[in-house]
């Protein structure tokens, strides 16, 4: 069945979303976070926010009915789209030649396997990801070298990301577009927001020891906090000031930070540690620079 006219040309509601689902025998499952854009103008605005151009290779999770996928393909060099629900295969049959369609779980594709910066084939991520995929996606975005990451997510999740001391160490959450829940089918419980995850600058370049140490802790969760902080301070001083800090000096700096002993003797696998380091950032800058 040809679907080239699936997206209505006129601005407003996507034409016959309910009717198309009915004709395909598809009942969207809210439990699986299956909520679909019911307004073509919103889809167009998402493409604009992502600033897609002819050199971009875009990664999309949850192609669904293909509304956003097709719009991305009109602007991008290539779109790599994933959809785990094979009920949508018929709706995603006739796609532009620059769309590489996968009917499988996208997690294996974006998994980086290691906390160090990597670059993938795609340079932009534009998606309305299922809630269940968001956390692993965000953890992998921390070490992915990308140009743009534009996600449509529940408002509550956007707030959680903003307050998360790990994620906030790697990117700033810019809220670019609010979307009322009535613009989706079926209607979810809460409103959504399109966020632009802007990469924070390298803390070595900006000479931000607090941010550097939070990242260092995240990549050394197998160590005790006190040991990771000590090593991180030594490395930071060497990279930013070209000077050597001894282990004893670094240990004294950690002591001056005033972090609770119970946290220093734990692994950095909880948010409280990161918040403590963040709260001591100003003092930390003084002691690292002055020695």
Return Rg in Å. Answer: 22 Å
DSSP helix fraction: 40-55%
Strand content: 15-25%
Number of domains: 2
What is the count of β-strands?
9
Summarize the helix and strand pattern as letters.
Answer: HEHEHEEHEHEHEEEHHHHHHH
What spatial order of strands do you see in the largest sheet? 4-3-2-5-6-9-7
Mean pLDDT: 88
CATH superfamily of the largest domain: Vaccinia Virus protein VP39
The largest sheet, given as strand count, sense and whether it forms a barrel, is: 7 strands, mixed
What is the CATH architecture descriptor of the largest domain? Answer: 3-Layer(aba) Sandwich
Low-confidence stretches: 1-15
Distance from N terminus to C terminus (CA atoms, Å) equals 71 Å
Tell me, what is the CATH class of the largest domain?
Answer: Alpha Beta
Structural class: alpha/beta
Q: Overall 3D geometry?
A: elongated
**Annotated CATH topology of the largest domain:** Rossmann fold
What is the overall number of helices? 13
Domain Ribosomal RNA adenine methylase transferase N-terminal: 42-201
InterPro entries: DNA_methylase_N6_adenine_CS, KsgA/Erm, rRNA_Ade_Mease_Trfase_CS, rRNA_Ade_methylase_Trfase_N, SAM-dependent_MTases_sf
Keywords: Methyltransferase, RNA-binding, S-adenosyl-L-methionine, Transferase
GO molecular function: RNA binding; rRNA (adenine-N6,N6-)-dimethyltransferase activity
């Amino acid at each position: 069945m040809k679907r080239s006219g699936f997206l209505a040309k006129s601005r407003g509601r996507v034409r016959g979303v309910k009717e198309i689902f009915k004709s395909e025998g598809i009942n969207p499952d809210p439990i699986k976070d299956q909520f679909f854009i019911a307004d073509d103008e919103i889809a167009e605005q998402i493409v604009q926010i992502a600033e897609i151009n002819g050199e971009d290779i875009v990664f999309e999770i949850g192609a669904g009915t293909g509304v956003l996928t097709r719009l991305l393909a009109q602007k991008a060099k290539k779109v790599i789209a994933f959809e785990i629900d094979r009920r949508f295969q018929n709706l995603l049959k006739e796609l532009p030649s620059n769309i590489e369609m996968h009917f499988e779980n996208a997690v294996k594709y974006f998994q980086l396997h290691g906390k160090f910066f990597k670059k993938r084939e795609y340079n932009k991520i534009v998606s309305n990801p299922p809630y269940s995929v968001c956390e692993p996606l965000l953890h992998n975005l921390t070490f992915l070298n990308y140009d743009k990451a534009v996600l449509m997510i529940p408002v509550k999740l956007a707030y959680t990301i903003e307050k998360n001391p790990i994620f906030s160490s790697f990117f700033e959450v810019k809220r670019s577009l609010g979307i009322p829940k009535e613009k989706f089918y079926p209607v979810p419980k809460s409103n959504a927001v399109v966020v632009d995850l802007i990469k924070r600058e390298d803390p070595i370049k900006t000479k931000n020891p607090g941010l550097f140490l939070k990242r260092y802790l995240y990549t050394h969760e197998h160590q005790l906090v006190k040991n990771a902080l000590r090593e991180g301070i030594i490395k930071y001083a060497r990279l930013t000031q070209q000077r050597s800090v001894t282990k004893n000096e670094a240990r004294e700096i950690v002591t001056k930070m005033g972090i609770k002993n119970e946290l220093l003797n734990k692994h950095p696998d909880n948010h409280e540690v990161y918040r403590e380091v963040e709260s001591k950032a100003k003092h930390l800058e003084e002691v690292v620079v002055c020695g």
